[in-house]
Write a structure and sequence with these properties.
Layout: H1 7-10, H2 25-29, E1 45-51, E2 57-63, H3 65-69, E3 73-77, E4 111-112, E5 118-124, H4 127-135, E6 138-143, H5 150-153, E7 169-177, H6 180-186, E8 189-200, E9 209-215, E10 218-223, H7 228-239, E11 246-249, H8 265-277, E12 281-284, H9 287-293, E13 297-308, E14 314-326, H10 336-341, E15 353-361, H11 375-393, H12 397-404, E16 413-414, E17 420-421, H13 426-436, H14 439-450, E18 454-464, H15 472-475, E19 488-494, E20 500-504, H16 513-525, E21 532-535, H17 553-580, E22 587-590, E23 593-596, E24 599-604, H18 606-615, E25 628-633, E26 642-652, E27 658-668, H19 675-695, E28 726-729, H20 747-764, H21 778-789
Helix pairs in contact: 7-8, 11-20, 16-17, 19-20
Bound molecules: pterin cytosine dinucleotide.
């Protein structure tokens, strides 16, 4: 299964490396789990939001009287009622870059800037009356000119989303290294391609939800959030409360995919109203609200220019990203497009790589992190353009890739842009992929199928990405937020009877931390993972944490858990050594017992040592009682997973419909903590990539109306559209953390869209179609085929 195996995973004695079933699943699949909507409090009120139907308009007047007169309505608030000094936060402050950041109020002030912009907040006794009352709020709008196309938004004379800046440009930002001019001068072939990476939604199963209770002088907020610790911080700041008075609980969270890595108006608004009214306030998002006002992702237009020698050697790579960030900046909005730049070297040895990013305001809902956040966009443009280059050179796409791979490295590789990859072996991942799929055979099948009007194609993607979002020394100076640092925390508490509780600062919402993290702690302490409870998502329990996003949890939070458990194990060793009159260095953990090396029968189990630590009759002199240790872990570097994916598609030449025949993924996220968790993450991740490539698209019309506001218009792939994924791994340990692990939560998404796109283009090339932008819908493909045949039907 692995090129470099994790010995711990295969010796049969450790839990790390085993495909344990998820501990959290029984309660999730039997309906015993508790989501925000399952929680109700005495005296609870409900909230509904009056939202703008206009994409850009002046608010002339708001008449709330009819709504207020309705039975059961307690209050109707507009911006004038808000006594908050600041609006929603934006946490990217890059040194030396001016970012035009407009105020972003919980309720619109003076103007609305996108469809769905909240104008009034209605609070009442029950869920339905507030929705009815919201319809009675009469808002008079004076429509203003709208701009939805980011390239038009940059042109002279475009309508301005925020006239005070005199431009729709939010900021320019660049990252590069090497001599681009010399690289292009040395090239025999230059390929240029405009690549549209369209807007998509997170589309989590559980919509957003919030319940806020201000009681006494304390605020408790239950939110379906990925970032309870961030939310606590901003609730405290925006409401003028001490952080110690604010508790945020993310109970069960039904998926986030980045869309819940946010500080939303509804969270702040409900908390503010609860304090104002002295009663709990609850709001549950509807699906259509979710499509409209839960942040979107991607939405870039990329201009890529690549230079190569005739033999395929890459000489220069320049990308210009025009990023449509919508009407406001939310928590990390303008940071997301620059994240592409950090991996624009991909897995290749290109000597000069430059990425220029221009971010632009339009009258759409803001974009922000959606699974992969910048890295799927980068990988898509690199890998799609690599295939375009291969075609131009008349070279096999895999041969072109191999020719340019960075050779294997295990302790760091510095790219020309100054980003240091931790470890990589791209050849090995591709070799493993080709053990599962034979391109020559697929091409032979394609020849046969063509006679039946079926166009079979094979596409590849070899990628690397940056995750394990943490090193304070990098993220702080990079401008990542008020928080500054990027560490993670863990506390391991061993109870007197020998079971353990891990408190982690990460906040899982589908990733399976309760299982994987328990495996790590169990191995350090010589117990079963079932004896390790993992507590997360409550800011009042455990140490301060920095939550879950950017596939950071295992590489940062898992390592913190290992370190905290390691500290506990060291204390146990000292206790055991004292009792057995041995040196602590001579105590080893073997077969569930802390025993003297060479005398496996002489020793104590964790339960016995814990008993000693709490009863304290026989402890080393000066040792404090208890078995409770904490770790704050701040790594030296990010981690850089990688992999090689292949996809085979069949396209019906009559209808343009694409069917995925096979999808094979080889990913390398270091030693597997739990291969089942990895497979689950890869399956879900690929589905995101397939969804964007073939089906999903958030689309606004020219007047800024959202025309894909429900799951009827926004096509999420279902099991019926997807193949049975084939997965495998190589394991190249990272030198950054003691577990050697890298992230995998976004890997499938990062590789997926390029892989599918390349397969579709491979299928269509015999028809004379070389490139089409995603989503590769039957209509687009059919039109391209007709156009290649010599005429687009009307
Ligand atoms: N893992 C492992 N061994 C490895 C690497 C990872 O067993 N060598 C396991 C980890 O223990 C963890 C899982 O894989 O259980 C993912 O770990 P990691 O890559 O650290 O990612 P995070 O836990 O930080 O998850 C975040 C990532 C992101 S950014 C998005 S978006 C995302 C995702 O994970 N959203 C998800 N996966 C999701 N899965 C579900 N079900 N729902 C979402 O909303």
């Amino acid at each position: 299964m692995s090129a470099t195996t994790n010995g711990a995973a295969t010796n049969g004695k450790t839990h790390v490396g085993q495909a344990l079933r998820r501990k959290e699943d029984p309660r999730l699949i039997t309906g015993r789990a508790s989501y925000v909507d399952d929680i109700n409090l005495t005296g609870q009120l409900w909230a509904a939001w009056v939202r703008s139907p206009e994409a850009h308009a002046k608010i002339v007047s708001i008449d709330t009287s009819a709504a207020k007169d309705r039975d059961g309505i307690v209050a109707v608030y507009t911006n004038e009622d808000l006594d908050m000094e600041a609006g929603l936060p934006m946490a990217w402050v890059p040194p030396g870059v001016t970012v035009n950041t407009p105020e972003h109020w919980v309720l619109a002030k003076g103007e609305v800037k996108h469809v769905g912009d909240p104008v009034a907040l209605v609070i009442g006794d029950d869920r339905y009356s507030v929705v009815d009352a919201a319809e009675d709020v009469v808002v008079e709008y004076e429509p203003l000119p709208v701009v939805v196309d980011p390239e038009q938004a940059l042109q002279e004379g475009s309508p301005l989303v925020h006239p005070q800046f005199g431009t729709n440009k939010v900021c320019d930002w660049s990252l590069g290294g090497g001599d681009l001019e010399a690289g292009f001068a040395a090239a025999d072939v230059i390929v240029e391609r405009r690549v549209v990476n369209h807007r998509i939604a997170g589309a989590a199963i559980e919509p957003r939800a919030v319940l806020a209770e201000y009681r006494g002088d304390r605020l408790t907020v239950w939110s379906s959030t990925q970032v309870p610790h961030f939310l606590r911080l901003f609730l405290a700041l925006l409401l003028g409360l001490g952080e110690d008075r604010v508790r945020v609980i993310a109970p069960e969270v039904g998926g986030g995919f980045g869309s819940k890595l946010q500080i939303y108006a509804e969270e702040i608004g409900c908390a503010w109203a609860s304090r104002k009214l002295g009663r709990p306030v609850k709001w549950i998002e509807t699906r259509s609200e979710g499509m409209m006002v839960t942040h979107h992702g991607r939405d870039q237009i990329d201009y890529v220019k690549v230079g190569a020698k005739r033999d395929g050697t890459l000489t220069a790579w320049h990308s210009k990203i025009i990023a449509d960030i919508g009407a406001y900046q939310m928590l990390l909005t303008p940071l997301i497009p620059p994240l592409s730049a950090f991996v624009m070297c991909g897995v290749y040895n290109t000597p000069a790589v430059v990425t220029d990013v221009t971010s632009v305001h339009t009258n759409k809902f803001p974009t922000d992190a959606i699974r992969g956040a910048g890295r799927p966009e980068a990988t898509h443009m690199i890998e799609v353009v690599m295939d375009q280059l291969a075609h131009e050179l008349g070279m096999d796409p895999l041969e072109l890739r191999r020719k340019n791979f960075i050779p294997p490295f295990s302790t760091g590789h510095e790219t020309p842009i100054g980003v240091v990859y931790d470890s990589g072996n791209y050849e090995a991942a591709l070799d493993k992929l080709l053990e599962h799929i034979d391109p020559a055979q697929v091409r032979a099948e394609a020849e046969e199928l063509r006679e039946q009007g079926i166009y079979r194609g094979i596409g590849f993607c070899t990628y690397t990405e940056i995750c394990g979002n943490a090193p304070s020394r990098a993220v702080g100076p990079g401008g990542f937020g008020l928080q500054g640092g990027g560490w993670e925390s863990a506390t391991v508490r061993v109870h007197a009877t020998g079971s353990a509780t891990l408190y982690t600062g990460t906040s899982p919402h589908g990733q399976g931390h309760e299982t994987g993290f328990a495996q790590i702690v169990a191995d350090k302490l010589g117990i079963d993972p079932q004896q390790v409870e993992v507590i997360h998502g409550d800011t009042q329990t455990g140490p301060f944490g920095l939550d879950t996003y950017g596939s950071r949890s295992l590489a940062v939070g898992g390592e913190a858990a290992a370190r905290a458990a390691g500290k506990v194990a060291n204390k146990v060793k000292a206790i055991v050594a004292h009792q057995l009159e041995a040196a602590p260095e001579d105590i080893e953990l073997r077969d569930g017992k802390f025993s003297v090396r060479g005398s496996p029968d002489k020793g104590l189990t964790l339960a016995e040592a814990a008993g000693a630590a709490y009863v304290t009759m026989d402890m080393p002199d000066g040792m404090e009682p208890g078995l409770d240790e904490q770790s704050f872990y701040d790594p030296e570097n990010f981690v850089f997973p990688f992999g090689a994916h292949a996809c085979v598609v069949d396209i019906d030449g009559e209808t343009g419909k694409t069917k995925i025949v096979r999808y094979v993924a080889v990913d390398d996220c270091g030693p597997a903590i739990n291969p089942l968790l990895i497979d689950g993450q890869v399956h879900g991740g690929i589905t995101h990539g397939v969804g964007q490539a073939l089906y999903e698209r958030i689309h606004y019309d020219e007047s800024g109306q959202l025309v894909t506001g429900t799951f009827v218009d926004y096509a999420l792939p279902t099991a019926a559209e997807l193949p049975s994924y084939e997965t495998d791994r190589t394991e190249t340990p990272s030198p950054v953390n003691s577990l050697g692990v890298k992230g995998v939560g976004e890997a499938g998404t990062i590789a997926g869209s390029a892989c599918v796109t390349n397969a579709v283009m491979d299928a269509l090339r015999p028809l004379g179609v070389n490139y089409i932008d995603m989503p590769l819908s039957p209509m687009r493909i059919w039109e391209a085929i007709q156009s290649a045949k010599g005429g687009v039907p009307a």
